[in-house]
Amino acid sequence: MKKLSILGSTGSIGVNTLDVVSKNRMQFCVVALAAGRNIDLLKTQIEQFNPLIAAVMDETLAVRLRESLPPDSKTEILWGAAGYRAVARIGDAEMVVSAMVGSAGLVPTLEAIDAGKHIALANKETLVAAGHLVVEKAREKKVRLLPVDSEHSAVFQCLNGQREQDVRRIVLTASGGPFRTFSRAQMEKVTPADALRHPNWEMGRKITIDSASMMNKGLEIIEAKWHFNLEIDNIDVLVHPKSVIHSMVEFVDGSVIAQLGIPDMRIPIAYALSFPARMPAHDGFLDFLKVSPLEFFEPDPDRFPCLKLARDAGRAGGTLPVVLNGSNEVAVEAFLEGKIKFTQMPVVIAETLSRHRSFSSPPLEEILAADRWSRREATNIIKEIKH
Ligand SMILES: NC(=O)c1ccc[n+]([C@@H]2O[C@H](COP(=O)([O-])OP(=O)(O)OC[C@H]3O[C@@H](n4cnc5c(N)ncnc54)[C@H](OP(=O)(O)O)[C@@H]3O)[C@@H](O)[C@H]2O)c1
Questions:
Q1: CA of 209 to the centre of ligand 1 (A)
Q2: How far is the CA of 127 from the centre of ligand 1 (A)?
Q3: What does the alpha-carbon distance between residue 347 and residue 88 come to, in Å, rounded to a whole number?
Q4: CA–CA dist 338, 319 (Å, integer)
Q5: pLDDT digits over 200-245, tens only?
Q6: Which atom of ligand 1 is nearest to the CA of 39?
């Protein structure tokens, strides 16, 4: 039995991970869970999986959770940074699923790697902000970073058994989100509810907005750079509205290998959990006759400027990707709260990036400082912006 610890168990990836575990109960045991604020769902998960420990964001939530559990519950309830550290480092686990959202996942993921855990990595912001540290530490500790993001799982599968030097480029596919065919003028008027309606995937709120702005694909370019040791310029993006091809790899001889499947996150999650084996993960299978024809389009840089912002920050490196990520998290939140328009998100991010003085090869303290700086700066820029 593989023992798992899950950071972000109450989120979309966390819930899907536990569903995969439930379908394969003889192979996995859940020893630790960490959530943010959703103690109702965490309570249900604790009752179902009986982890040794569970952690939430603060002490008040921890006390409420403890009181809601039956008195004979053996799960120890922890909170805050120390609680997340305990979940990340728990001795019993051999794999940690990193599925918190945003840069909150960075420190616990580094803790888990430091403790020698293999990582099923969904939290792309960790690689965006601190790819060099994560990859270096994983190498030092001899742990695997198994991609959960569907595109990176696809590339990982296409690269299986291939030589690094034979890769010419990778192509990340993007659905194009709900505004793929919208004009610039239409995009000026979209609401958070419009942006939260993704055509193909059911995901958490932040990544759904990122998908609508295509920042998600930008973050994924940087994520791919670190996962697969590639130059940013060897990572292309194609809009593929049906999300059937999850990504592809082109080799120097002109061969292209693609990974296909229905858009269901349980497939890449299951592969990360059971690698190199495969196991049942979901109920549907791909019907080629129903999905044809498969179409591809060039992403439009004018309507989706986040893609270029991310590519440029990824190419420049240093603390710029940290600032890209931090300011994006603030901009997404401000858009969801109705403080800025959808089209103002890239304006906030670009302005924050332009005010930043980047450091190369930043250590963790510099990364955390740049993250805090970017959030303060983006918040100020939002206050200055005319809605
Ligand atoms: N969803 C997908 O299909 C998908 C696909 C590819 C990659 N990813 C990546 O996977 C990660 C998770 O995405 P998601 O869609 O599952 O997000 P989500 O549904 O919003 O869930 C986020 C999880 O993180 C927890 N959390 C939020 N803020 C936290 C904080 N400050 N400290 C500790 N925990 C915190 C949440 O707890 P509470 O809800 O209890 O507050 C929840 O468990 C993201 O990095 C995303 O980019 C997601």
A1: 13
A2: 15
A3: 36
A4: 29
A5: 888 999 999 999 999 999 999 999 999 999 999 999 999 999 999 9
A6: 40
